[in-house]
Design brief:
The chain has helices at about 5-20, 45-55, 70-80, 145-150, 160-170, 180-195, 200, 230-245, 250-260, and strands at about 20-30, 30, 35-40, 40-45, 60-65, 85, 95-100, 105, 110, 130-135, 155-160, 175-180, 205-215, 215, 220. It has about 260 residues and is of the alpha/beta class. A 5-stranded mixed β-sheet has the order 5-1-6-15-7, sandwiched between helices. Strands 11-10-12-9-13 form a 5-stranded mixed β-sheet, sandwiched between helices.
């Protein structure tokens, strides 16, 4: 028979556990190594990191679900879901406010097929006039890239994933690909070591050209999804992210995925 004080502690623990609110955050399903689906499992640097953040939350429990990026943006715009990771901060997405504190600082660049590198391409957009540059569908990258496309200096070609863009580049259907440097390198390595895609990508040697910026990635929240616990959840989430970043977990995860 349990002592009365043990019963009290057990009841308190059960009440505390039951009181944790489950919060669903959606993440890009096709952005390796940061967030992606492989063999039915949602994984990646940001997925692993947010799972650890969840253990630091006192009143909430995170559930992480993958989603095609453009569909995820639409869910946020319609107020159907609360949070999506990992967008950069852009005022053009007025439906996505506020943002969490930064998860990580990424590094955007343009990587080109060797065939279009017969001349130096060190200035953007002057040295890229008329080129077809692949981007992931729904991505907002550097404003300079968007402005050059609007002004007709370059053409942006959208595809659903890193893999799709790199396969287009290998087939010379686009000239260059704009994305985070680690994401490009990681995905190309996976394609070149996969039996299904090695034959068409093994000779692709990308030339990394101009840097477009170093934006920070976040969890972005819908302005139209406003449960009563939203502010409390964001406070706990931000505190958890800051603490684990300070402890070096994000850098450890990045280095771990770089070594794979």
């Amino acid at each position: 028979m349990l002592r009365p004080w043990l019963c009290w502690l057990l009841c308190l623990w059960l009440l505390t556990a039951q009181a944790r609110e489950r919060v669903v955050l959606f993440g890009d399903e096709a952005y390796p190594p940061y967030s992606y689906v492989e063999n039915g499992e949602f994984k990646g640097i940001y997925v692993d990191f947010l799972k650890q953040v969840s253990t630091r939350l006192s009143n909430f429990e995170l559930e992480l679900r993958p989603v095609p990026w453009k569909r995820g943006l639409e869910m946020i715009r319609r107020g159907e879901q609360m949070g999506l990771f990992p967008p950069y901060q852009f005022s053009e997405r007025g439906y996505m406010v506020p943002y969490s504190v930064p998860l990580w600082q990424e590094s955007l660049l343009i990587a080109c097929h060797p065939d279009v590198m017969q001349k130096p391409r060190t200035r953007f957009p002057e040295d890229f006039l008329g080129l077809h540059i692949g981007v992931n569908r729904g991505f907002l990258l550097a404003r300079t890239l968007q402005t050059a496309a609007r002004n007709g200096k370059i053409r942006l070609d959208e595809a659903d994933s890193n893999e799709a863009n790199l396969l287009k580049l290998a087939a010379r259907r686009i000239d260059c690909y704009a994305n985070d440097a680690l994401s490009i390198r990681y995905t190309l390595h996976r394609l070149q070591t996969s039996p299904a895609t090695a034959a068409v990508t093994q000779h692709l040697q990308l030339v990394e050209t101009v840097q477009l910026g170093d934006p920070t990635a976040h969890v972005g929240f819908s302005a139209y999804f406003t449960p009563v616990y939203k502010a409390r959840f964001m406070d706990e989430l931000n505190a958890g992210i800051n603490q684990l970043v300070k402890e070096g977990l994000m850098r450890q995860l990045v280095e771990s995925y770089q070594a794979r």
